[in-house]
Amino acid sequence: MGNRRGWVIAGVAVLLGGVLGFHRLVPNWPGRVGSLIESFLPWVGLLVVVLLVVALVQRSAVALVALLLPVGVWVDTFGGLLLPGEGGDGRELVVVQHNVSDENRDPAGTARALIGSGADLVALEELVDPQVAVYEKSLAADYPHHVVRGTVGLWSKHPLSGEQVVDIKPPSIEEGWSRGVRAVVHSPYGDVAAYVAHLPSVRVGVGGLASQRRDESASLLGRAIADESVEAVVLLGDLNGVVEDRGLRPLTSQLSFAESGFAFSFPAAFPVARIDQVMARSATVGHIRTLPATGSDHLPVVARVALD
Fold it and tell me: How far apart are CA 285 and CA 260, in angstroms?
């Protein structure tokens, strides 16, 4: 019986290794199953740990050998995120991304928490009346420059110009939906085009992952960034997807993202995925981490962006 269990564990280990190593080959139809798997890919490591414990209890050599495959692939894929970020050369901007929630009952407290990060740039989503006025008042002293368009906004310690709406509305969403803004940040290290975006939500149901609108919005945002004339770009936003999710390929194919740190940001009560992202062009996103919970269902994330 023990030998049989060992072979079962070995079979599951090979399957997990295949999922980790070849998830891009999993078709996205039906139900966008590929994106669904990619959304929780880091957690495959937890399953491997459980199998490792069982294999040790069973004293199965074949299972332990087979587990080397998913362990090796997981370390190759995600191991770098466990390492501390490298120090910058001083040409850095500290940035914070936070979906503050339209149901946040303590916007002033949330603003104080974000100020405490010492960030140069603060990007916020789900800005609604009357909370938006509280953020504007609370952040004004530390961030004298800001722009709000629709339900997203950017606060900066450095001057802004060229503020404009970025149209990322999928065709099936009614007029009045506005979740993208762009501004040029005149930093001490040169101009940076900063984008703040909140892509449509996704839902997991019996039919799989409902992400069509999110994917359409990501494509529109990707086109806007590809056409950006300022070389250095920073994208901050609730993208409702992890960087492994193929639905965000229009963005991840042209922008770099965090080199270290998992920074799971959602849901705040028990974070299982980082859907709040910091990405960049002609810049390097260093270590990314979360800040303590605010009145939102998301955790804020903070990262250092080193300009090339």
Answer: 9
* DSSP per residue, 144-176: -EEEEETTEEEEESS-EEEEEE-----TTSPTT
Does position 2 have pLDDT exceeding 80, yes or no?
no
In whole angstroms, give the CA distance from residue 39 to residue 279: 17
Q: Please tell me the predicted confidence (pLDDT) of residue 85.
A: 66
- pLDDT score of 292: 97
d(CA 14, CA 119): 44
**Residues 135-145: tens digit of each pLDDT:** 999 999 999 99
What confidence score (pLDDT) does residue 25 get? 84
CA distance linking residue 39 with residue 31, whole number of Å = 13
Q: What is the mean pLDDT of residues 1-22?
A: 87
In the block, which residue shows the tokens 């368009």? Answer: 149
* pLDDT > 90 in the chain, percent: 83
Q: 3-class DSSP state for residue 256?
A: strand
Residue of 110, 86, 84 lying closest to 96 (CA atoms):
110
Q: In sequence order, what are the residues at sequence separation of 6 or more whose Cβ sits closer than 8 angstroms to the Cβ of residue 17?
A: 69, 70, 72, 73
In angstroms, the first-to-last Cα distance of the chain is 59
Q: Are 197 and 168 in contact (CB under 8 A)?
A: yes
Residue from 198, 196, 289 nearest 235 by CA:
196
Say how far apart CA 131 and CA 267 lie, in whole Å: 21
Amino acid present at 123:
A
